[in-house]
Design goal:
Two copies of one chain form a homodimer.
Chain A lengths: L18 H8 L3 H8 L9 H14 L5 H8 L4 E6 L5 H14 L4 E6 L8 H8 L5 E5 L15 E4 L10 E5 H14 L5 E6 L4 H16 L10 E3 L3 H17 L4 E4 L2 H14 L8 E6 L12 E4 L2 H16 L10 E3 L1 E3 L9
Chain A binds a DNA duplex (16 and 16 nucleotides) through α2 and α4.
DNA sequence: CTGAAAGCGCTTACAG
DNA sequence: CTGAAAGCGCTTACAG
């Protein structure tokens, strides 16, 4: 036998209000309390009783225990979004989109990793044990994929090449990356550097390979070394650029492409402190097209990636899966677009 | 009677593995499965049985249903951190600290609001209904406080003036703000502008009032209008500064203090684009002392606030409360410190 | 060393 | 219109 009351006691805190207490006070059964509390009294409960129960609920400040209702119904009302690099502004926009689409149907909870870290399988396992209504995973690593045959609806965001494992909403980074390569080639650049993210997400891999492949086909080369990568953080990116620039400079590099705009801000900053003029001495571009890219000095050429739309589409797909609709849905691919600004010589 | 099996079925997904299935396969009772799964077999289960159960768990890929165990034990293993302004890098550091202190004892889940928004009472109510082991609330608004007599341990972070409502870990922003005012007075500044955050958190109020009070006592004045405020975002801060600068300039303002370093980066950027030299024409300073502040051009004078320590201390206090220790604990106050750099004329 | 049973706080067919 | 009861999947004293 369980210790009576143990389940609802927290040391130093009063016992929690349960439906039974409400029922007592209102002089009805817990079944009726449940009906009233969840708003399922479709003419099945008399107006007087409803009022009495509502009063008792208000008096006692009763809130339905989601843990118990979740166990009883086998469903929950929250969605967990798993993501690395929480402080990337791009991600904040994705969240906004997710919340827009989720509306008030589901609560959104986030599970984040430390900067530069990827969520691991063990992590997702534990998250799944909370029995969320669904899981959204942003920029997952390929290793995570094999665990995704699980029993909870899952949608991947910005996870190119993983559609086979779970439904995904992806960004068409390839076309944007290629347009950027063409643009730089047309500006006469011959040698390009690439500042990558340390995060081992396929989306970053794809940005780099798509850009470099097209760059090569247009006759541009990339210095064999050093490779440059940093976390998604202006300071780290600036530091990394300062470190590799001397070698790149010697190799004749006149353009640097960055995995994200945040990286590019670091490059702009470092270039300024090194006396490297942008765009005269060096062209700089990034991916994301964050709002700030239109205002930076110089303004930043960037491959626009629709963060908010990404969040909205992923949440919409997840909702459909949760509700049993659309389980064989295609994985949408959201278009990217190159926005040319001063940092690659827009004004010249 | 509930529909058999309904609770564990998600449309289009296989039924979940339960302890009963594991028990069947291992030829034991669910009680024994529970003991093995939760590692509570202290010599109470024979080695052979343990091995058999472990095998079945592995074969079926069984994970304990947290919802059910939570209901049974009346306790959970996750903590929710409620916070506004997720994309502020300061916040990412707080999270790092929280996670360091929580270790593997509790999972951390985040509940965030949209930029510039504060979490509302209704929101916290719903979060509490998930029965987390505890709640951490970063920079709460005063209005939220009245709901905090609740039945779950709660710790506030960076919530000056609210210690009466719940245990809190605060930053001693006052001394840092005063040191900054003294520093600017000593540099000869007579008129200062203040770029505030739009977020209605007491910590921002306190930064401003403490700074301005000390500034006034040192003979400095602030232009009566316009007031300047923006979200915690470089672009918005830059835009806001551009808007107010002409009036401030006319009022003789030679120093601008910002609610956060992120705001200050925006001012640095806007100043540059306006041809206002920092620090020659204008001194700029912020709060937080983010890593980037040491590298920006010019480097930024800032009141250092120990974000990671804040997270660690808050999580440690919450853990103590959850475990019934220390419920009358004092609310720690973490020291702030002024770091003077180029943006206020360090080199002159 | 192991299992049967009660209980956590809900929800929901069912009987009345 | 309302309540008694079973069931969700665990955990934990208790009996053997």
């Amino acid at each position: 036998m369980a210790i009576p009351g143990a389940a609802s006691e927290i040391p130093g805190h009063p016992p929690r209000v349960t439906a039974a207490m409400v029922a007592d006070r209102a002089g009805v059964s817990v079944a009726t309390v449940s009906l009233v509390a969840s708003g399922k009294t479709g003419g099945r409960v008399s107006a007087g009783t409803v009022a009495r129960v509502r009063g008792a609920i208000a008096d006692l400040n009763y809130v339905v225990n989601r843990v118990a209702s979740s166990l009883a119904t086998g469903s929950s009302n929250f969605v967990i979004l798993v993501a690395p690099d929480i402080s990337n502004p791009f991600f904040a926009r994705v969240i906004t989109g997710v919340r827009e689409s989720l509306g008030s149907s589901y609560q959104l909870l986030l599970s984040v990793t430390d900067s530069g870290q990827m969520p691991r399988e063990e992590n997702v396992r534990e998250l799944l044990a909370f029995r969320p209504a669904g899981l959204l995973i942003d920029a997952p690593s390929p290793q995570l994929m094999r665990y995704l045959g699980a029993d909870v609806p899952i949608v991947l965001l910005d996870a190119p090449g993983t559609q086979n494992f779970a439904p995904a909403v992806n960004l068409d980074v390839v076309h944007g990356a290629e347009a950027l390569a063409v643009h730089l080639a047309e500006r006469g650049h011959r040698h390009v550097g690439y500042l990558d993210s340390v995060t081992a997400a396929p989306t970053f891999e794809l940005r780099r390979t798509a850009f470099l492949a097209k760059a090569e086909s247009r006759g541009m080369t990339r210095p064999g070394s050093p490779r440059a990568r940093s976390t998604i953080d202006v300071g780290s990116a600036a530091e990394e650029f300062r470190k590799v620039w001397p070698a790149w400079d010697r190799a004749g590099v006149t353009a640097v492409v960055c995995a994200t705009d945040t990286h590019a801000y670091g490059v702009l900053q470092a270039a300024q402190s090194l006396g490297v003029r942008v765009p005269e001495d060096l062209a700089v571009a990034g991916f994301d097209d964050l709002p700030y890219s239109a205002m930076s000095q110089p303004s930043l050429t960037s491959v626009e990636l629709p963060a908010r739309k990404l969040g909205r589409a992923a949440a919409a797909l997840l909702t459909a899966l949760i509700q049993g609709r659309d389980s064989t849905s295609a994985s949408p691919l959201l278009p990217s677009r190159l926005t040319i600004r001063e940092s690659t010589g827009d004004s010249t």
